[in-house]
Amino acid sequence: MVITYNHERYVDECLRAVAAQTFTDLEVIVIDDASTDGTVERIRPWLDRLPFATRLLVNERNLGICATRNRAIAATSGSFLCSVSGDDFYEPEKIASQHAVISTLDESVAMVFSNMRVVDDDGTPRGLWFTDGRPPAEGHIFERLVEGNFIPAPTAMTRRAAVLSVGGYDESLYYEDYDMWLRLADRYEFRFVPGDLVNYRWTGTSASRNPRSAARMLESRARLLMKWSDRDPRTAAIVRDRAWRNARRALRLRPGARPRDAARGRRAAPGRVPACPRRRDRRAWQRPRRPRRARRARPAQAPAPRARLNGARGRATGSAGARRDRPGGAARSCFHNPTCDGTDH
């Protein structure tokens, strides 16, 4: 599946890489999500050039990435799915390498994925997704995946039956991959196929770098994470904390929205820019704070004795009477006369 939207500049390179695939048993679905540039006109000549059965679908209006993927899946008939954006491009052995692995695994494995090379607008390599060539986890990875999405989506090859078994893509979300990976990882295993098999173009127009779409992505991430808040007590705290963080970031980018609204997908009313969220909502989304460290209590001290005047002459004495500081324990009260034991006053 080739998904395009305003990719006029890059779509030729993408389709050229599809035509160069060493695996030949393919069907190609090219679907355009109502591009406003000349993307569709650039695609049409390739329908006869590609050495595979190829179909072009064009949305009459912009449906978003999730609905567009669902429409593309409905048009496919193969057992495995690969999807590439119109501004990315495959290495020639991408599909063949992954198909050779996933076709030998049982149906408990829903997806295989690989490493990918990050390139700039001109296709110049800038680095690797997994810098050491290996992912942080594979197999049963749900617990690791809720901590952060590390799957490079353009490299994935999934079982079509597994994607349909979890209900396809959630069309209420702004972006698709993380939600799908969590739902698949809840039931299936993921496997890694070594190799840098995809070139991912990191451009200023990419959705992940577009400030205008950043708030919607954050809201979607908060909402999809909250689907799993009650799945497992071991991951509940991580899920809720990450959902809170994303909702708060979305709130900063969308003045007038509340964190709870961000997690539920609500949008702020036009012109509504309150000074702060309502107290009820602020309390509901307040991040747990560390309890304040109790101050160490000072040891109680006996009050210092106050001097008092004794007798008509005004001799000062201790408030407790005689001081027992002479050898032998003799009492002394008059500090001006060492020989006085206090009995002559």
Number of domains: 2
- Major β-sheet profile: 6 strands, mixed
Mean pLDDT score: 80
The geometry reads as globular
In CATH, the architecture of the largest domain is Alpha-Beta Complex
What does this structure look like?
The chain has helices at about 10-20, 40-45, 45-50, 65-75, 95-100, 140-145, 160-165, 175-185, 210-225, 235-255, 260-265, 280-285, and strands at about 1-5, 25-30, 55-60, 80, 85, 90, 110-120, 125-130, 155-160, 190-200, 310, 315. It is of the alpha/beta class and about 350 residues long. The protein has two domains: about 1-205, Spore Coat Polysaccharide Biosynthesis Protein SpsA, Chain A (Alpha-Beta Complex), CATH 3.90.550.10; about 210-265. Strands 4, 6, 7, 8, 9 and 10 form a six-stranded mixed beta sheet that branches. Strands 3-2-1-5 form a four-stranded parallel beta sheet, sandwiched between helices. The radius of gyration is 36 Å and the shape is globular.
Topology, pairings included?
Elements: E1 2-4, H1 11-19, E2 27-32, H2 39-43, H3 46-49, E3 53-58, H4 65-74, E4 80-82, E5 84-85, E6 89-90, H5 94-102, E7 109-119, E8 125-128, H6 142-145, E9 157-159, H7 160-165, H8 177-185, E10 189-201, H9 211-226, H10 233-253, H11 259-264, H12 279-284, E11 308-310, E12 315-317
Parallel strand pairs: 1-2, 1-5, 2-3, 7-10
Antiparallel strand pairs: 4-9, 6-10, 7-8, 7-9, 11-12
Helix pairs in contact: 9-10
